[in-house]
Amino acid sequence: MQTKSYDDLLALTTALIGAGSLTDPEKAQILQFVNRRAHEAYQTSESWPRYMVAGEERTISTTPAQTVPYVEASKDNIAEFIRIHRDQPFLNRSSREFEFYVTSQGAHIMNISSNDAGSAFVTYKKEFTPFTDTSTDIPQEWFYFIAHGAYADFLRVQDKQEEAIAEEQVAGTYLALELEKIDNRVNNTNLVNRFSTYVSRQAR
């Protein structure tokens, strides 16, 4: 997946502002706007490909019992649990899907049988990590939304409300186009959409 650097993002935002250069306080302000907009984009969908992990094996903790924690060594932190299976899912054979509920400690698996192993296969959304002024991993799919959104925020600080509203609409259009793309992908898969049946729920 393609990425851009924060330098690229700052250059575009600076160009939109129309400034030859920004002061250090303004640069710090832009970075805050960028992370606010990036988090906004992140929150709009659980299906962003770069944040989606499908069917990763995770340890089932015994303290608390029957719980898959948010954090496990050498693996990405889980921000949102989407689906949990007993065996590797989305291959050529079906896999029993667990019911679960989420607490502050992780996903508590319900109706787990004594025959189930000490691990489960989790489909989840990775945790969002804020960007810094040296980041080189700005998602290409968010690039123009973030730049125009940060510009809109900058305009509001300058009390240019009408211009900010117009720029907000530009930013929203960029994000909507990217969301349409991932919605089309999701509609062609069952990574997120769960089909609940008696067979998928029963303990075996």
Q: Walk across the major sheet and give the strand order.
A: 3-4-7-6
Write down how many β-strands occur, each being a DSSP E stretch of 2 or more residues.
9
N/C terminus separation: 39 Å
User: What portion of the residues fall into strands of 2 or more residues?
Assistant: 15-25%
The radius of gyration over CA amounts to 21 Å
Tell me the structural class.
Answer: alpha+beta
What's the average pLDDT? 90
Unreliable segments of 5+ consecutive residues: 195-204
Q: What's the helix count?
A: 5
Summarize the main sheet: 4 strands, antiparallel
Shape: elongated
Helix and strand succession? EHHEEEEEEEEHHH
Give helix % range. 25-40%
Describe this structure in words.
- With 204 residues, the protein is of the alpha+beta class.
- The chain is built from five helices and nine strands; from the N terminus they run E-H-H-E-E-E-E-E-E-E-E-H-H-H.
- The chain has helices spanning 6-17, 24-43, 143-157, 161-187, 198-201; strands at 3-4, 52-59, 61-62, 65-68, 78-85, 100-103, 106-109, 119-126, 138-139.
- The strands form three sheets. Strands 3-4-7-6 form a four-stranded antiparallel β-sheet, with no helix packed on it. A three-stranded antiparallel β-sheet has the order 2-8-5, with no helix packed on it.
- A hairpin with a 2-residue loop joins strand 3 (61-62) and strand 4 (65-68).
- Helix 1 (6-17) crosses helix 3 (143-157) and helix 3 packs antiparallel against helix 4.
- The chain is elongated, with a radius of gyration of 21 Å.
